[in-house]
Amino acid sequence: MNKKQKAAEIFRRLEKRYPAPEPALDWTNAWELLVATVLAAQCTDERVNKVTPGLFARWPSIRDMAAADVGEVEEAVRSTGFFRNKAKNLVASARLVMDEFQGQVPRSMAELVRLPGVARKTANIVLSNAYGVHEGIAVDTHVKRLTFRLGLTANTDPVRIEKDLMPLFPREAWGDINHFLVYFGREVCKAQKPRCAECELEDLCPKKGVK
User: Fold this and answer.
1) Catalytic positions, please?
2) What is the DSSP string of 95-112?
3) Whether domain 3-22+137-204 has CATH 1.10.1670.10
4) Please, which residues have CB within 8 angstroms of residue 9's CB and are 6 or more apart in sequence?
5) Residue ranges, the chain, pLDDT below 50
6) Per the confidence metrics, is the pTM higher than 0.90?
7) In the chain, what are the domain boundaries?
8) Triad 193, 16, 121: Cα angle to 5°
C-alpha cells in the first residue's frame, strides 16, 4: 500500500467514525469563526465557546469590533490566554476588513493572511467551513502529531506538512480530514498516552515517535 492508498484508507475509516464533521467552535458566520479560531490558539475550544457569546453580544459586528477599545476587548478575552495579542489582532483585523474588504471577511488565502494574527491554519478553517473554499489543509497540533505518527509526513513544520498532505487527499476532502484528525487526536491518538489498543488505524500506523 503506497502513501496515497494509505491516506485514502485512513480517510475512509475516519469518515465512518465521524459521518458529520464540523468545527468544535461555536459560530454563525465567517467573522465569528475567524474570531473563535484566533482565540483558540493555545486555548481549548471549550473555553473559547464560553467566552465568545459575551464577546459577540458586546461587539456583534465587524464594524463594532473595529471601533472597540483594545483594553476592553483584552478583558473580554483574558481567560483565553495571550489576551493582549489576541485583542490587538482582533481589533486590527476588524479595521482592515472594514477599510479594505468592504466589511466582508475575505474569501481567499492571500487576502485572509493579510489580517493580523491570521496564518494559514486559521485561514484554511475559515475558508473551508464558512465558504466551502478549499485552498489547503489546516494543520494544528493534532494534525501535526497524527500525520507524523501515521507516516504521512516526515516534516514538523506546519507549512511543509500541509504541502505533504494536500496531494494525498482529494481537494473536496481537505476540510474534513482536518476535522477527522482533530477529533481522533482528542479521543484516541492522544499526545501523551495514545490508545493504540483501541485504534482503528493501528494496522496502518508505523507509530512514528510513539514511545
Assistant:
1) 121, 140
2) HHHHHHSTTS--SSHHHH
3) yes
4) 1, 204
5) none
6) yes
7) 3-22+137-204, 30-131
8) 65
